[in-house]
Amino acid sequence: MIQPLQLGLFVAIVDVLGHGPEAHEVALEIDRYLTRFGSPDVSGVMERLHQQLKGTRGAAVGLCAIDATIGRMDYVGIGNTALRRFGNTETRLVSRDGVLGQNMRTPLLQSLELEPGDLIVMYTDGVSDRFTANEYPGLAIHAPQEIACKIVQRFGKDHDDAACIAVRYCR
User: Fold this and answer.
1) Rounded to whole angstroms, how far apart are CA atoms 108 and 30?
2) In a 10 Å sphere around its CB, with 0-12 CB exposed, 13-18 middle and 19+ buried, how is residue 133 labelled?
3) CATH, range 2-168
4) Within the chain, which residues score under 70 in pLDDT?
5) CA distances from residue 168 to 13, 31, 73, 143 in whole angstroms, order as listed
6) What is the pTM of this model?
7) What is the pLDDT of residues 61-100, one digit of tens each?
8) Which residues of 55-89 are buried (b: 16+ CB within 10 A; e: fewer)?
9) DSSP 3-state assignment of 98?
10) What is the residue extent of each domain of the chain?
């Protein structure tokens, strides 16, 4: 999910536990909640979403807010989601262990200063975490939607579902 904020973007990656109709319903509930309450306060959104999901099968969730005016990005993640920045420097932000709606430690807010051209990639555990920019030289030039699709195609695991979102920061 990517949605505009007053000064930038709110980005969320979600992996509901399990499969089938019940998992689909939880995914829809998360989407409705984040569409309505997504904000730059990613830690607060994560805490409130955790409460909203109590009693469900739960999910792994990564939330990111990009303030385009100052080039700052905030991230919190719970469960098997990841965020990486590719650009002049490559950075990986770590999600905390847990399952949203079941057992969650206090979200760890992580921030990055962004440079024009930086690529933010968020993905679930269905994507191998071991790929590098050298293995995908098109990261610097391809459109973000194409990058997300190719990451899933090239680095997705055969035995798990995979999701990926890519956003390029331009000032």
Assistant:
1) 20
2) middle
3) 3.60.40.10
4) none
5) 16, 22, 12, 8
6) 0.95
7) 999 999 999 999 999 999 999 999 999 999 999 899 999 9
8) ebbbbbbbbbbbbbeebbbbbbbbbbbbbbbbbee
9) strand
10) 2-168
